[in-house]
């Protein structure tokens, strides 16, 4: 089981980024998937989660209305679309499979002018 994130970078406040999490070793569509983030000096926090049952995704209050989690079954990839980014969104973002306890290596998002 392996998760590989990509798509991070430097963006100005108000900008957008799309993070990708490519899964291998399992079909993510059969399991819940999550995105977490960890800002400098802070604990890792849950940002968004999607279930395998087709239910509504869950989001942290701080990102509701700005972030969207989705998946592409054909590519076995989970995405995190981030819009209206704020400096406080700056963090390393991690993809997670709760079922397998797997984490990606993380991708850094920096929101700064």
Please explain how this structure is put together.
β4 (33-38) and β5 form a beta hairpin. The protein is globular. It has no helices and 11 strands. The strands form 2 sheets. Strands 2, 4, 5, 6, 9, 10 and 11 form a 7-stranded mixed beta sheet that branches. It is mainly β and 113 residues long.
Task: Provide a compact summary of the structure.
With 113 residues, the protein is mostly beta strands.
Structure characteristics:
mainly beta, 113 residues, globular, single chain
Question: What class do helices, strands and sheet pairing give?
Answer: mainly beta
Number of helices: 0
User: Sheet with the most strands?
Assistant: 7 strands, mixed
Q: Percentage of helical residues?
A: under 10%
End-to-end C-alpha gap:
37 Å
Low-pLDDT runs of 5+ residues are: none
The gross shape turns out to be globular
Return Rg in Å.
13 Å
Quote the beta fraction.
Answer: over 45%
Instruction: State the total count of DSSP E strands.
Output: 11
Q: Summarize the helix and strand pattern as letters.
A: EEEEEEEEEEE
Average pLDDT number: 94
């Amino acid at each position: 089981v392996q998760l590989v994130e990509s798509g991070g970078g430097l963006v100005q406040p108000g900008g957008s980024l799309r993070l990708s999490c490519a899964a291998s070793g399992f079909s993510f569509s059969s399991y819940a998937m999550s995105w977490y983030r960890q800002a400098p000096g802070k604990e890792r926090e849950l940002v968004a989660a999607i279930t395998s049952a087709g239910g509504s995704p869950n989001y942290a209050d701080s990102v509701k209305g700005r972030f969207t989690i989705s998946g592409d079954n054909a590519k076995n990839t989970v995405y995190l679309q981030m819009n209206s980014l704020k400096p406080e969104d700056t963090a390393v973002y991690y993809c997670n499979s709760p079922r397998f306890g797997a984490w990606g290596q993380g991708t850094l998002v920096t929101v700064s002018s």
